[in-house]
Design brief:
Length: 231
């Protein structure tokens, strides 16, 4: 099995989710303890956030440094455990020899599998305003909606000031649920890897958990040489 590399720290909470998703999914498939080898490079959340706000060149450099370090540590397939950095995916995709799995591609595959036509995107302000989901999904006939400016600020605040620090509040879940209910869509993209902390699998709201989907795609690629081609 290929060694997995994870660019983490964006935020630390989502890094934990990725590790848990990969390990648990592996056990669900194989029912043994030959868990995949996982190397994690945890970036400075604040340094990267500051770079995203006004210095694209530095943000890209931080991601490339992390990915190259993972490759030097023996990683053969890798992923970035956050949605926002995928704004720069085209800038970093060919930076090293290992395969880098895109969270956008993985989520699109799941949306197509479910025959979704219209989706609501929630995430950080940068993600919701970036247009990266809209561009990718439009090519496959899937419409992406985003909340209005006020609701965007609410979602962004909950992510940055609560979830990124491991704080999960019922009132915040209720606020985001009320935003989702405003829109007539097939499902909601939880386009921030911390947002699933608010929702459980048995929720009435239909959503695409980008963190879980991405982690499973990374594991699938790592296991392909063993002949496991589907999860």
């Amino acid at each position: 099995m290929k060694r997995i590399g994870i660019v983490g720290g964006l935020s630390p909470e989502s890094t934990i989710l990725y590790y848990n998703h990969i390990v648990r999914k592996y056990y669900e498939i194989k029912h043994d303890h030959y868990f995949p080898e996982i190397v994690i490079y945890s970036l400075s959340f604040q340094e990267f956030s500051d770079a995203v706000a006004g210095n694209k060149k530095h943000a890209v450099a931080l991601l490339i440094k992390a990915l190259k370090t993972l490759e030097k540590a023996g990683a053969e397939v890798a992923g970035i455990s956050a949605n926002t950095p995928h704004i720069y995916f085209d800038d970093i995709a060919g930076c090293c020899g290992m395969e880098i799995i895109s969270i956008l591609d993985a989520t699109l595959e799941r949306a197509v599998e479910n025959s979704f036509n219209k989706l609501l995107l929630l995430g950080t302000m940068f993600t919701m305003k970036s247009g990266m989901f809209e561009k990718k999904f439009k090519a496959h006939g899937i419409e992406i909606l985003t909340p209005d400016e006020e609701d965007m600020r609410v979602v962004n605040s909950i992510i940055m000031n609560e979830l990124a620090h491991g704080e999960v509040k019922d009132e915040s879940k209720d606020r985001i649920t009320s935003i989702i209910e405003k829109y007539d869509v097939d499902a909601t993209i939880l386009g921030c890897t911390e947002l699933p902390m608010l929702f459980e699998e048995d929720e009435k709201i239909k959503f695409l958990d980008t963190a879980k989907i991405h982690a499973e795609k990374i594991l699938k690629k790592a296991m392909e040489e063993e002949g496991v081609h589907s999860l």
